[in-house]
Design brief:
7-stranded parallel β-sheet; homodimer; 21% strand; alpha/beta; 16 strands; Aldehyde Dehydrogenase, Chain A, domain 2; globular; Aldehyde Dehydrogenase, Chain A, domain 1; 4-stranded parallel β-sheet
């Protein structure tokens, strides 16, 4: 069977499974999720053996330590994957939810009911835990899913797929509810992206290169974010201690993630007091600063920032710092260089806090809190399937509800149009 | 200037205008809308003169009577266009709306605030009233718009654009808030569809051919519906009189629109009583029936329906009729042949009404009401910019709110992640 035929067959079966999943009671979905969790626990040893084959191959190929770290299923990772299934089972089911209903003058009762999107394709890198995460979230939201993980994780993913298939079978759910692309042929991704008649949404998870390749080739809508160039603006009225704490957290706590701060904007009036204190803390934490000319005056000896630094997503202990004249200059910098991901202001000025919240058009905007809160779980969505920085359908962290859409439902009593 | 450069210039200016519009107070937008209405009224005679040039050219080219009808600006049409601006001014502004806020355990107050999408491209046929409609709805929702109407309406559209530009100027709004593509070069549409960096959404309005051409060429997300193959299922428990009234209305009141019924499904148990009564009413109204073999037995002499009839959007006084065994068979027919637009059930059975509402995945599902209510205004959205039958972003009739997205806003008091 050609790769094209394989993918088409998977997509057709997924669409049939999606029809069945769309009307499945919440209790049945939860049972299947708990079966998945239990099956992962029961097969933890086998899973780690298969994973060890991937890790050995990755070492042989000389992959980076960070990649091998993401690939490796430690005992705790497997336990967390299983616990994740139980947690998703305990989340509220978005399907069938009606947020409001209203009565029309002619008596029609109109509402909007949440239904699944249908079939979702998830394309990601060599992180086997994403296989379980994505499968659980799609199942809970009533969607069929086709998973395509990085080739380096193929043995781990095949093992997970086998375990999940058994759990689906024990729960009397269609096998095609959760399918893994088990070939490592790169053509498979391209073929999947052409199947707009069967697949409703593509979610790529990974680096900018992966996402750009998916977008360039997909005929199916893609929800994505390319990068997170997140800003914090420290206003002149900021409490120094709070600003220090937030700036440290946003840069240092986990520098390699998309909601870490990449550029700091500091109000001119507070820069001489604030920057030396912050620079000292950053020095101890190993953070390198690249600054604008005014920053260089305040912090002699730092490296100068270039135009490229304002656009950079370092994902590392490096920070670009710019001193700005006022709130407007800060927002103009964000508008020009930002990635529509996450921006925060630290201020004690009421009017400026409100202007920042209203006028900054990024997907997550915070007052007096770390950018690191831009995360589905932290914001109370229960889970996160990804982050969107395009405004269509979803904007910002996506939870279960973002894997559904809303149809109109109308209760009538014989009404006709005149 | 090449067409490509022209379009790029328009899109860049639209993006700048969008930034200004996104923070414009509701009152300022409403003033501009009322200025637009007044300007249309003041220039009605000029507008109709320019329109007459288009109509004369259309006659010369031998366009169909229906096309000329849609192109012609009668006195009443112009008055309705002006009144439409006032009506949009009176609608609630979706921008800035926060539907709910919640407190996280760490004290963060999290909500989602509606913001405009940015720049919207509307591509439509030779219907000058759409120029004003779309401009008004985009302006009210804080979006900049680039309008590209059918070539046959070019003089009308240029006249409208001039009038709108004056109204924007008098209201101190950026001229690029509402721009018309004033060249008739077909290449202009293609060039617009490439500008994904500047344009956030494309809404095509018109026939299936126009929409398919837009989708095939667009790098920008498109919200669309190809066609409306709308169904009514008359259950065995339906009240005969209600079923007759709804089926007449859905087919006859305005057969040329997308929410008219195209296929009628009738429960086997009620078909012998119901179909002869309905056929008699349809005969008087000039409706031609094409039926399945069972329908042919009940209504001798009608034409047989072929496989193509089940997929047909007649937009005319023609109806496909199929007798089915039960609700499941009806829903299976809809799943197989439907267009995800609008379906209705006529029933007095509680359980079946609930199953139909929950299980049919079309964008609008009705119980005991005509499919013709699938319309933004009729459902209480205040207005309609289009209908979506793809599940991403919007599903069903789209009002002002569907021209916005929601960002996360977070009020903190110094929180950091641990």
């Amino acid at each position: 069977m050609s790769v094209r035929t394989q993918m088409l067959t998977m997509a057709r079966e997924a669409k049939l499974a999606a029809a069945a999943l769309s009307v499945l009671p919440t209790a049945a979905k939860n049972r299947a999720l708990r079966e998945m969790g239990a099956a992962i626990r029961d097969n933890a040893a086998y899973l780690r053996e298969e994973n060890a084959r991937d890790v050995a191959a990755a070492r042989e190929k000389g992959l980076s330590a960070a990649m091998i770290d993401r690939l490796t299923l430690k005992e705790a990772t497997v336990a967390a994957m299983a616990a994740g299934c139980d947690e998703v089972a305990s989340l509220e089911d978005p399907v069938g939810k009606i947020s409001s209903m209203w009565r029309r003058p002619n008596g029609l009762l109109v509402g909007r009911m949440r239904i699944p999107l249908g079939v979702i394709g998830v394309i990601y890198e060599a992180r086997p835990n994403v296989t379980v995460d994505a499968a659980a979230l799609c199942l809970k939201s009533g969607n069929a899913v086709i998973l395509r993980g990085g080739t380096e994780a193929i043995h781990s993913n095949r093992a997970i797929a086998g375990i999940v298939a058994e759990a689906l079978d024990r729960s009397s759910l269609p096998a095609a509810a959760i399918q893994l692309v088990s070939t490592t042929d790169r053509q498979a991704v391209y073929e999947l992206l052409q199947l707009e008649e069967w697949i409703d949404l593509i979610i790529p998870r990974g680096g900018e290169e992966l996402i750009r390749a998916v977008v360039a080739n997909s005929k199916i809508p893609v929800i994505k974010h390319y990068k997170g160039v997140c800003h914090i603006f420290v206003d002149e009225t900021a409490e120094l201690e709070m600003a220090l704490r937030i700036c440290m957290n946003a840069k240092v706590q986990r520098p390699g993630v998309c909601n870490a701060m990449e550029t700091l904007l500091v109000h001119r009036a507070i820069a001489p007091r604030f920057l030396p204190l912050l620079a000292e803390e950053y020095r101890r934490a190993g953070v390198t600063i690249r600054g604008c000319p005014v920053t260089e005056q305040v912090l002699p000896g730092i490296a100068p920032a270039t135009e490229e630094d304002w656009r950079a997503e370092y994902l590392d202990l490096i920070l670009a710092v710019r001193v700005v004249d006022d709130l407007d200059a800060a927002m103009e910098h964000i508008r020009r260089y930002g990635s529509l991901h996450t921006e925060a202001i630290v201020t004690n000025d009421y009017g400026r806090s409100q202007r920042f919240l209203q006028e900054v058009q990024s997907s997550t905007v915070l007052v007096n809190a770390s950018t690191r809160f831009s995360d589905g779980f932290e914001l109370g969505l229960g889970a996160e399937i990804g982050i969107s920085t395009t405004k269509l359908h979803a904007y910002g962290p996506m939870g279960l509800e973002e894997l559904t859409t809303a149809k109109f439902i109308i209760y009538g009593s014989g009404q006709v149009r005149t």
